[in-house]
Here is the input.
Amino acid sequence: MADSQFVVCAPLCFLVNKIGRLDNKSLRSLLSDYYSTDDIVAAKKKLIDDANRLQLSEKLLRAASHRDGDSRHDHEVNDMLSVINLLHEKNILSNLSTYVVDKPDQMPSPRLLEGDFKYFMHVFERLTEKVDQY
Here is the structure.
């Protein structure tokens, strides 16, 4: 277990706190849209370093970054999600350091997603039907 140390890292704070609450597609989209490639690369390196300290039987991704290119950002985000999902499946996310953010504005807020929108449209339609009855 980590020494309950706090590590300031906005992408990891967001990811660790939203895993299991949002689907991977939404997480990937939010991370990709909100954080820069430099932020993602630094967060991935920290995550892999912390995860390797747990001494898992599975070999995790190496901390080396993907080469610069058009898809580098997406590959780095996918790598982070792979490691987080593995740790989440094994219920050992709590063994990592505690990731925090020093400025709450550095964390994205989930958008209204298609599934959520359908729910609100259904509620709105029911409300419209009741108003029409009156």
